[in-house]
Amino acid sequence: MRSPGARSKEVSAGDRDFRESFLAGGGYPSGVVHTPTIPDRERCDKSERFAPGLAVGDDQMTGMSKLSHLYELREAQTDEDRLWLLDLAQDLAEVTVAPLRGVWGEQARAFAKNSITELFGYQSTRQWRFYIATDRATNERVGYLILNMDHECPFDRRETYIEDMGVVSEYLGKRVGHFLTDEAARLSAEAGVHYLGAHISFTNRRALLAALGNGFELESYRIVRPCTPEAIETTKASEGALERQAQLEKTRKAVLSRRIKRRQRSAARAARRGGAEES
Q1: Are the beta carbons of 11 and 125 closer than 8 angstroms?
Q2: Is the dihedral of CA 234, 237, 239, 245 positive or negative?
Q3: What pLDDT, on the 0 to 100 scale, is given for residue 210?
Q4: Which residues, 6 or more positions from 241, have their beta carbon under 8 angstroms from its beta carbon?
């Protein structure tokens, strides 16, 4: 997530009201019911933000994701969609935002809330686009994508940029992240943009490996050095947050491993049943 900076286009009154309602601490707009299905802390521990990544191949060239038979992408146009996206983004921020500058826990949640809520205020400009991925079988929301269609790039005229992306815990390991970035690449190509950029926190090693295995290339490394006593102390204090993130990553890997084994056992049982019926 990045600060949107200066904008040259007008913001719609509806978008502005939605943004200001959140930034003022007024909670959800009137008429919108907030009904999270999992407690916030549990959702944080059981959710996963997937890596930006895109699969390049014949299907990509034709604008079709190999996973489009499983998932569908639509724009987040309703308040219900945007509130669902904001809730998930805040949960995921606790385990994916790099804590070196003292931003972790509730501060990370606040950072996600303020950053994304500000971007909501510019949705009508069409530079920042908000998408929801749904499961075609159940029509449930399974992930989101925030795509900047006109990001500044020092090497080219412009690029598209994944401002943020997230996937719900129940779909961990089901390639929703790949689908989202396939769609981001498709939208970029349709807009005539050659490159799709993204940023991954150094603490999110799993996301980086997934991205590199799904079409992305490393272009640069960003480093930061604390210069004042305050900054040095803040960086030292972040070690506890790093340990927590490492433990959560270990837990997510264990969950993913168990799910893969269950699928393998189910596939093996189905194969045995099929062989028995043929005999």
Answers
A1: yes
A2: negative
A3: 80
A4: 99, 104, 105
